[in-house]
Automatic annotation (TrEMBL):
Gene3D superfamilies found in the cross-reference section: Cobalt-precorrin-4 Transmethylase, Domain 1, Methyltransferase, Cobalt-precorrin-4 Transmethylase, Domain 2
Domain Tetrapyrrole methylase stretches: 2-210
Coiled coil: none
Keyword line: Cytoplasm, Methyltransferase, rRNA processing, S-adenosyl-L-methionine, Transferase
Protein name: 16S rRNA (Cytidine(1402)-2'-O)-methyltransferase
Keyword Glycosyltransferase belongs to the record: no
Length: 228
């Protein structure tokens, strides 16, 4: 049996690869994070002429709440279908998204893991940040509890000459900037908002400068890149 990890656009539907469309079109079983998001994207692809027909595959759902409970039944279903495709709402599955436990389960059952790569918000943000990309540390979403967030950042403080990538929601961006400034001092940052979308915006500067540049109302998806 084989599980294919397939990357989807991070904001612009036109970024999907022809291989990704073909793989999804031919799939018998698709495992996704949210059926509504998957079908909405596919409808957009049909509207702009990139996809020709509706998805014919059976669709199953895994998310942060049910993944561990569903691994056994999904591995059995993948084995029966012989092949399945795993996608997340945007970007690559497993990377700050569900899928790790399923991948681990398929490997344990002797299955094969393959990949159809796609857009990646973290590396896209590093590319546009203007910072060196020779040493990159990906932290994803920091813990919600203040103590654990600080502990994670303190761990990074032991390093130097590293470009750090953090995912954050709009409601915590200012707090994150303050935390970075408290622990690392005035460091260079790039705040990347809604990458690949029409509303894409990148603010660059030291911690205090980027905070002043931000609009009052924050929205969308954010990737924070800092040079430590």
């Amino acid at each position: 049996m084989k599980l294919i990890l397939l990357g989807l656009p991070i904001g612009n539907a036109g970024d999907v690869s022809s291989r990704a469309i073909r793989t999804l079109s031919e799939a018998k079983l698709i495992i996704c994070e949210d059926t509504r998001v998957l079908h909405s994207l596919w409808q957009k692809l049909m509207n702009i002429g990139l996809a020709k027909e509706k998805l014919a595959a059976k669709v199953r759902v895994i998310n942060d709440f049910n993944e561990k409970l569903r691994v056994g039944s999904l591995v059995a279903e993948i084995a029966e279908a012989d092949e399945a495709v795993l996608v997340s709402d945007a970007g690559m599955p497993v990377i700050s998204d569900p899928g790790y436990n399923l991948v681990k389960g398929v490997i344990a059952a002797g299955g094969e893991i393959s990949v159809v790569p796609g857009p990646d918000a973290a590396m896209s943000a590093v590319a546009v940040s203007g910072f060196p990309a020779d040493k990159v540390m990906y932290l994803g979403f920091l813990p919600k509890k203040t103590g654990k967030r600080r502990q994670t950042l303190e761990m990074v403080k032991q390093l130097s000459g590293v470009t750090v990538v953090i995912y954050e929601g709009p409601g915590r961006i200012v707090k994150l900037i303050d935390e970075v400034e408290t622990i690392f001092g005035e460091v260079e940052m790039a705040l990347c908002n809604d990458l690949t979308k029409v509303s894409e915006k990148v603010w660059r500067g030291k911690t205090g400068e980027v905070k002043e540049k931000l609009p009052e109302k924050l929205h969308g998806e954010w990737v924070v890149v800092a040079r430590i």
